[in-house]
Amino acid sequence: MLPVVSPTRVSQTRVSLPARLLRGIRPCLSGLCLSTALAATVVQPLGAQTVDEDAMDVQSQGLNLPKDLTVFGKSDPNVRKATAIVNGRIITGTDVDQRLALIITANGGKVSEEERERLRVQVLRNLIDETLEIQEAAANDIKISPEEVNQSYERVAGNFRRSPAQFDEYLRSQGSSAASIKRQIEGELAWSRLQRRNIQPFVNVSEEEVKAVVDRLNAAKGSDEFRLGEIYLSATPENREQIIANARNIIEQIRKGGSFQAYARQFSEASTAAVGGDLGWIRPAQLPAELAQAATEMQVGQIAGPIETVGGVSILYVIDKRKVLTADPRDSLLSLKQLSVLFPQGTTKEQASAKAASFAAAVKEIKGCGQANEIGARVGADVVDNDNVKVRDLPPQLQDILINLQVGETTPPFGSITDGVRVLVVCGRDDPQSAGAPNAEQIQAQLEEERVNKRARIYLRDLRRDAVIEYN
Predict the structure, then answer these.
(1) Which intervals hold domain PpiC (predicted)?
(2) One digit per residue, pLDDT tens: the chain, 472 residues?
């Protein structure tokens, strides 16, 4: 049985077509996501070392290395200061510190010193890739204008409900800067534009491939599908134990309140890192056997791992669950009346319980929404109308209750001493239509995107291989 824990709730901000697992790299245009790979940090003992001839078989890999190998000197490639020069472009310690501050802020500032140092190494790798992407775009005469960067920056500031000037001040207060985010935005825009020019025109998806996807969806109608989040870490036999330890540490950080999405953006090596690890809606048959088994055994809101799979390990999170091409009752739109009673400051638990019991007895008399206002006035409750409320947008506990309520019925009272006690009355319900398969254009676009992502990963790998990188 796989270890399962419950993470902090992850906001459901994206619903996509059924997706396949990808092992690529894709930028995001939010200006706040990281998507480079996590490599193992294995510190070797200092001094001369001997390697057992059975410990490594590299001849089959095309490397002409001696079997009796001795390493001289004390150089440790994993112990570096957080600065580098990438093809002549300097990445300073300040660059790393400011980008690291964004990640720590995204995790609520609750990051141990050990975790901070590991994140610092990861940030340096991200900045190196970002620099390579900008340089390659420039070599292909792709320039991102300051106006474009500022427009994207303004949208990012808007996501934080701040003006650009206010967002500048906020970033400074967190130990970061506008320049750091703008540099990341420039890299994401440049890399995206480079893919559209050098990769996308050479990717084709046939009508037969699209039809095959539609046929598989229709054949699977009524079976379970899951909206999953994944953090994928590649591993080799040599670093497998270290990668598993890294995965366990990530799970522990999430269990302590860390954001699954933030860790996916920082560490996952799948292309979905850019969207917080969200694989979209996917059927178990589309997953490797190990992940499929885990998904079918998990409930919504649970996380499992590390799960060993081909080439590495995965951490899996079940965001949501539904039936393929079948109407989901959680997509129903409800018209609701909310009756709420607040508790005065200083109310004790006993006093609140007594008032809640009196309120519960009163609302039992409600026979339809027509009586809600009258009874609300009698008990001194505030009454608010809420139309077009989608069931799935409500807390999970209320979803299960409201799905089974008829028009005119009320929920049990719920709340807290701080927020008061309240009930919801169902005044109307619009049930969802039967779900249909995505259209051909949507499927074709998704298949093309997958292939572009795979080629982009190879492209970036080649850039790393050819780069001249000096570490200080």
Answers:
(1) 223-320
(2) 444 444 433 333 332 333 332 333 333 433 333 333 222 222 222 333 333 333 344 444 455 665 655 555 554 554 445 478 899 888 988 999 998 888 787 766 677 787 788 788 888 888 998 999 999 999 999 999 999 999 999 998 888 889 999 999 999 999 999 999 899 899 989 998 999 999 989 988 888 888 888 787 777 676 778 889 999 888 888 888 988 988 998 898 888 878 888 888 878 887 788 788 898 888 787 788 888 888 888 888 889 989 998 888 999 999 888 877 667 777 788 889 898 888 888 888 888 888 888 888 888 888 878 888 888 888 888 888 888 888 888 887 888 888 888 888 888 888 887 888 888 888 888 877 665 567 778 788 878 888 888 888 889 889 988 888 887 7
Task: Give 222-225's long-range contacts (Cβ < 8 A, gap of 24+).
Answer: 222/323, 222/324, 222/325, 222/326, 223/283, 223/323, 223/324, 224/283, 224/284, 224/296, 224/321, 224/322, 224/323, 224/324, 225/18, 225/281, 225/282, 225/283, 225/284, 225/321, 225/322, 225/323, 225/324
By CB atoms closer than 10 A (0-12, 13-18, 19+), residue 51 is middle
Delineate the domains of the chain, giving CATH numbers in brackets.
4-25+216-327 (3.10.50.40), 329-430 (3.10.50.40)
What residue ranges in 311-355 does DSSP mark as E strands?
312-323, 333-341
Q: How far apart are CA 220 and CA 315, in angstroms?
A: 26
- 3-class SS at 231? strand
Cis amide linkage into residue 432, ω under 30° from 0: no
379: closest CA among 345, 348, 421? 421
Q: Which two tokens stand for residue 319?
A: 């965001």
**CA dist., res. 11 & res. 439, Å (int):** 27
pTM: 0.55
d(CA 270, CA 288): 14
Helices (H) and strands (E) in the chain, counts: 13, 14
- Secondary structure class of 50 (helix, strand, coil): strand
Query: Cα–Cα–Cα angle for 283, 288, 292, nearest 5°?
Result: 50
In the numeric block, which tokens belong to residue 96?
């790393």
C-beta neighbour count of 67 within 10 angstroms? 13
215 burial level (CB within 10 Å; 0-12, 13-18, 19+): exposed
How many CA atoms does the CB half-sphere of 132 hold within 13 Å? 21
